[in-house]
Write a structure and sequence with these properties.
Length: 159
C-alpha cells in the first residue's frame, strides 16, 4: 500500500533563496517535450515514476507545450543535477515534479533546489497557494524536506 501526502504553502515565505555556487538553475524557454520525458525518466526511475511512461509523443507535446507548465533544470559542472516543473492552476501553483538525479542526493542540493522552486512559484503573478504531493515510494527524506521548506501537510490517502 502506498501513502500519498498532500502539502501546501499558503503564504509567501520571507527571505531570499540562495543556491550553492556550484549549482546553476535554468528555466527551459523553448518547449522540448522529449527533454521533459528524459528528465522524468532520469530523475523518476528510482522512485517508480511510471504514470507518464506510457504517454505517446503527442501526449507529451500536449502536456509540455502549454503556458501553464514551466520547467527548470539544475546543473552542476554541466551535468543534470535535478529538475522541477511548476503548473499554474488559477491562483494555485502545483509543484508537479521535483527531484535530484541519484548521484546528487545527499550533497545538500535538495533543500536548496526546493527552496528555489518555491520562490519561483511565488514569483508567478497572482499566486496564493503552492502545493505538491509526494508518496511513501519517494526518497525517505522527501516528506521531511518539503516540511522543512515550509509545506504543511493537509491530506493523506492510501492507494
Amino acid at each position: 500500500m502506498t501513502t500519498i501526502f498532500y502539502l501546501e504553502i499558503t503564504e509567501k515565505p520571507l527571505g531570499t533563496t540562495l543556491l550553492p555556487e556550484s549549482l546553476t538553475v535554468s528555466e527551459i524557454q523553448i518547449d522540448q517535450p522529449q527533454f521533459n520525458r528524459f528528465l522524468y525518466q532520469l530523475i523518476g526511475a528510482p522512485w517508480q515514476w511510471t504514470d507518464k511512461l506510457k504517454l505517446s509523443d503527442e501526449d507529451w507535446n500536449s502536456y509540455v507545450c502549454r503556458p501553464e507548465l514551466r520547467t527548470w533544470v539544475a546543473y552542476k559542472e554541466g551535468a543534470i543535477a535535478g529538475y522541477f516543473e511548476l503548473e499554474t492552476q488559477g491562483k494555485a501553483i502545483e509543484l508537479k515534479y521535483f527531484g535530484l538525479e541519484q548521484g546528487f542526493i545527499g550533497q545538500g542540493y535538495g533543500k536548496a533546489l526546493l527552496s528555489y522552486a518555491i520562490a519561483q512559484a511565488w514569483a508567478i503573478a497572482g499566486t496564493e497557494r503552492v502545493w505538491v504531493h509526494t508518496c511513501s515510494l519517494d526518497h525517505e527524506n522527501a516528506l521531511n524536506n518539503y516540511q522543512r521548506c515550509g509545506f504543511k501537510l493537509y491530506k493523506t490517502e492510501q492507494e
